[in-house]
């Protein structure tokens, strides 16, 4: 299709005529709510754009691709990496960001509904990034949004942009995505990052090991999806028996804020910790990952181990979010 041809695209209910090159990536004007929206081709597209973003940042520090665009960041839950990397991504592409990182000081405290808050922000901005404690909140907000909305974590549901950066990091470190044995260890029940990551890794040939205490097992609905995608998995409560066989060990924090009963949290807090002794029994090229923040799951003495991928994950998060912002705003 030549760049002078036009095509139509439905953007949240409105049909626009657009030059074909603006829509060819399939992301333009779309909400990003779940990793279920991605297939291998779409992932590959985002990863190659992220590669470009990385080299652009390394060489020039910034570009003016999103000059004049404004991002609204609406965070109803705490965040360090997701919030600041979205902001940095926008700034590095020449755009700007308005942040409501503490809804405490906004009209939310006066009782304003989520749809009204989103409608307000999108009157000033070109897209919204939303983090919310309720599962499905991003999808609900998107029903009212006229401009693209990106899910930055909806309670125990999903964290799509984290899973995108996780897989990008795995590909970067291990140079392949098929044929990997991936262990996820910790709070698999409440950890939204492992829900999204499991769904995305199901697009590849992956052997899954889910390691958790009984009360923090991976939810059945995710396990059913893994089975339905034709994959096998094992569940266990200890990494000891498999530490020498796995290609990726993905740790998660026990999500204190999600427990209704503090006594239950006390039972499982600190249940797993990776130290240099455990790492000495792992594969020479195993990637040790964590979405962060860590609260004792990985000892700081492991940080200098070249297999510790969690700081690379953080940095890659900015390139992935730059790629996604550019794609959704039709500039990739
Ligand atoms: N930062 C990740 C999240 O927002 C992981 C965590 O909080 O433990 O889900």
Q: Report how far apart the termini are.
A: 17 Å
**Overall geometry:** globular
Helix fraction, binned, reads: 25-40%
Range of strand content: 15-25%
Low-confidence stretches: 1-24
Widest sheet: strand ordering: 9-8-7-10-11
The largest β sheet comes out as:
5 strands, parallel
How many H/I helical runs?
10
Overview of this protein structure:
This protein starts with 5 loop residues before the first strand and ends with a helix. It is an alpha/beta fold and 332 residues long. 41% of the residues are buried. A five-stranded parallel beta sheet has the order 9-8-7-10-11, covered by helices on one side. It has ten helices and eleven strands. The model is unreliable at 1-24 (pLDDT under 50). Helices cover 35% and strands 17% of the residues. Aspartic acid binds at residues 153, 159, 192-193, 253, 291.
Question: What is the structure about, briefly put?
Answer:
The protein has helices at residues 40-60, 81-92, 114-124, 137-144, 160-174, 192-201, 220-228, 262-268, 276-279, 310-328, and strands at 6-11, 14-19, 70-75, 96-100, 127-132, 149-154, 180-185, 206-211, 233-236, 248-251, 287-289. By secondary structure, the chain is of the alpha/beta class. Residues 1-24 have low confidence and may be disordered.
Which properties best describe this structure?
single chain; 332 residues; 5-stranded parallel beta sheet; 4-stranded parallel beta sheet; globular; binds aspartic acid
List the helices and strands and how they pair.
Elements: E1 6-11, E2 14-19, H1 40-60, E3 70-75, H2 81-92, E4 96-100, H3 114-124, E5 127-132, H4 137-144, E6 149-154, H5 160-174, E7 180-185, H6 192-201, E8 206-211, H7 220-228, E9 233-236, E10 248-251, H8 262-268, H9 276-279, E11 287-289, H10 310-328
Parallel strand pairs: 3-4, 3-5, 5-6, 7-8, 7-10, 8-9, 10-11
Antiparallel strand pairs: 1-2
Helix pairs in contact: 1-10, 2-10, 3-4, 5-6, 5-10
This protein binds aspartic acid.
């Amino acid at each position: 299709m030549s760049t002078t041809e036009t095509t139509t695209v439905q953007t949240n209910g409105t049909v626009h005529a657009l030059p074909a090159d603006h829509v060819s990536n399939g992301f333009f004007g779309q909400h990003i709510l779940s990793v279920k929206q991605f297939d291998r081709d779409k992932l590959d597209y985002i990863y190659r754009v992220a590669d470009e973003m990385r080299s652009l940042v390394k060489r020039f520090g910034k570009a003016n691709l999103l000059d004049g665009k404004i991002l609204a960041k609406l965070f109803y839950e705490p965040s360090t990496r997701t919030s600041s990397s979205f902001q940095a991504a926008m700034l590095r592409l020449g755009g700007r960001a308005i942040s409501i990182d503490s809804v405490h000081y906004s009209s939310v405290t006066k009782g304003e509904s989520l749809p009204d808050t989103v409608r307000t922000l999108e009157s000033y901005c070109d897209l919204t990034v939303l983090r919310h404690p309720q599962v499905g909140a991003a999808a609900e907000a998107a029903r009212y949004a006229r401009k693209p909305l990106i899910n930055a974590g909806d309670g125990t549901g999903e964290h799509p942009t984290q899973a995108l950066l996780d897989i990008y990091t795995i590909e970067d470190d291990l140079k392949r995505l098929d044929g990997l044995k991936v262990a996820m260890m910790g709070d698999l029940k409440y950890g939204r990052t492992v829900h999204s990551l499991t769904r995305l890794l199901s697009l590849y040939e992956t052997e899954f090991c889910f390691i958790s205490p009984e009360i923090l097992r991976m939810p059945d609905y995710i396990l059913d999806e893994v089975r339905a995608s034709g994959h096998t998995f094992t569940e266990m409560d200890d990494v000891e028996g498999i530490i020498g066989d796995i290609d990726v060990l993905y740790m998660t924090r026990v999500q204190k804020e999600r427990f209704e009963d503090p006594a239950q949290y006390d039972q499982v807090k600190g249940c797993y910790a990776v130290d240099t002794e455990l790492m000495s029994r792992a594969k020479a090229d195993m990637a040790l990952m964590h979405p962060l923040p860590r609260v004792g799951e990985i000892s700081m003495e492991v940080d200098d181990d070249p297999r510790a991928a969690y700081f690379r994950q953080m940095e890659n998060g900015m390139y992935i979010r730059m790629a996604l912002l550019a794609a959704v705003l039709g500039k990739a």
